[in-house]
Amino acid sequence: MRISEILAKDTVGISCELFPPKFGSQLANVKETVREMAELKPTYMSITYGATGGTSEYTIDIANEIQNVNHIPALAHLTCVSSTKEKVHSVIEQLKQSGIENILALRGDIPTDADFPLPNQYQYASELIYDIKQQGEFCIGAACYPEGHPEADSMEEDLNYLKEKVEAGCGFLTTQMFFDNSIYYNFMYKVLKKKISVPVVPGIMPVTNASQIKRIVSLSGTMAPPRFKAIVDRFADSPAAMRQAGIAYATEQIIDLIANGVNHVHIYTMNKPDVAGEILRNLSEIYIR
Ligand code: FAD
Fold this sequence. Notes:
- The protein is built from eleven helices and nine strands.
- The chain has helices spanning 3-8, 27-38, 56-69, 85-97, 125-134, 155-168, 181-193, 210-220, 226-235, 239-259, 273-282, and strands at 13-18, 45-47, 74-79, 102-106, 139-144, 172-175, 200-201, 203-204, 264-268.
- It is globular.
- The chain starts with a helix and ends in a 7-residue tail after the last helix.
- Residues 48-49, 51, 77, 79, 104, 106-109, 124-126, 143, 149, 151-152, 157-158, 161, 165, 174, 176, 203 line the site of flavin-adenine dinucleotide.
């Protein structure tokens, strides 16, 4: 099923993100994670794409497992920064062969040790989106950044390029994680002012251990609000308490979003079905599966 059809429904939906294994020896474990996650009945499941492009076959394999074995619509991520156009075309063709209809088209982070872009590469996600559009009837999504992409000089500039992605053929957007919902609400105001009218799915990350948050904040530039920092400060040394507080915080964020009219939320599960399961149990009268 196409994600755009899922997002058009006037009911609450929760989807989940997984990441693929780095090595073939971990493939069976990730497939078991897919099975456990599928039992939670998310509306769709996304599978990320390794930054170097070297593990693309695992993304295709897991997307196939999600959709054709566990019968949950799959959203396959696809980055272009470390691949030639030929390699990207071949991945798109393989997704098509597996019946995967949904692609989240991304540039990826530019490697520090490589020349970019080479002549046979896409420079921006908008170019990739345009090309995927030419290659079949895919439902294409893209990333957006409520706090601005770290490379962008201004939010205004970032939003202009976001509009280019939508005009190139992207039918929905998923946000970078945020820990303060007012950041999403402010962003939506700017998005609508730019006349970007595709659905913008908020991405929520349950932070269940303290080291995770330090890495996230330094990599993505995401702001940690004082209320969130207080939780990390208080519970960092107690893994069980940190996990419980992180699940409660993410649950509260999701409830607030839904209460304010958002119908669909994407959870960055970090391949933890137990964490996603607790959040969904907290929402059992809100997200009716
Ligand atoms: P783009 O949309 O190309 O934007 C990148 C930068 O270039 C921005 O600063 C933008 O303002 C600027 N820009 C865009 N177009 C132009 C233009 N025409 N001229 C000048 N500047 C321009 N990474 C992975 O490796 N694998 C994943 O699976 C993955 N999944 C993600 C999922 C989500 C929901 C999100 C939010 C991020 C994900 N990422 C993933 C990270 C992402 O690849 C990085 O954030 C990357 O740096 C930017 O990718 P993009 O597609 O947003 O790039």
